Amino acid sequence: MEKFVLASHNKNKLREMSAILSQLGVEVVSPDSLGIDVDVEETGTTFEENSLLKARAIMELSGMPAIADDSGLCVDALNGAPGVYSARYGGGDLDDMGRTRLLLENMRGQSPRTCRFVSVITCCFPDGTVLSARGECEGTVAFAPMGEGGFGYDPVFFVPELKKTFAQLTAEEKNARSHRGRALTLFRTKLEDYLKTKA
Ligand code: IMP
């Protein structure tokens, strides 16, 4: 079984990535389980740049294939904010609920409420190979948080076709349509091709 290190301490990302990549015979382990305790500075201005920065740094530290997800919520009426700054929206002191409340405040009176989640998955291998895939998922910013599942902005990410927020979906339902699920599906095809060339 291939073993990849996740370039993140986010347990929710680890759970979502493991669920999808285990189908490919890939085990995803946390950096903490290898005694790696660094926070890679996200100095890039695009999801692609930050995803690569994280994957490369953890690959170099671990000597193992490292996989990173850089993701965020882009809201049209806020010119794409919070975007790459989704995890730090409102400064470093807010928690998920605080950031969600701030977003709802900033959306008061705004239209349209259209938005998208974006995820860029990058995997860096010790042989220098870099595989990358982007996934997006369209929705609208709900008027109030709904649901208990998921994490981050899930309670206010409303999917019009389902009339539910991401936080009201099961993990399987979310993975089937989410930005991360889509990026991982594309990544999976690229990974299969790469593993074939190695075999
Ligand atoms: P990153 O760790 O810099 O990629 O930060 C991503 C941030 O975007 C997270 O902390 C969340 O706030 C938000 N985010 C990314 N993916 C999701 C998701 O699937 N649901 C809810 N929020 C998400």
Structure at a glance:
This protein has 199 residues and is α/β, with parallel strands linked by helices. It contains five helices and seven strands. The two termini are 13 Å apart.
Features:
alpha/beta; seven-stranded mixed sheet; 33% helix; binds inosinic acid
- Structural class by helix and strand composition: alpha/beta
Can you list the strand order of the major beta sheet?
A: 2-1-3-4-5-6-7
Helicity range of the residues? 25-40%
Alpha-carbon distance between the two ends: 13 Å
Q: What is the overall shape?
A: globular
Bound molecules: inosinic acid
Low-confidence stretches: none
How many strand units?
Answer: 7
- What fraction of residues sit in β-strands? 15-25%
SS field, number of helical segments: 5
* Largest sheet geometry: 7 strands, mixed
What is the mean pLDDT?
A: 95
The ordered H/E elements are EHEHEHEEEEHH
Radius of gyration: 17 Å
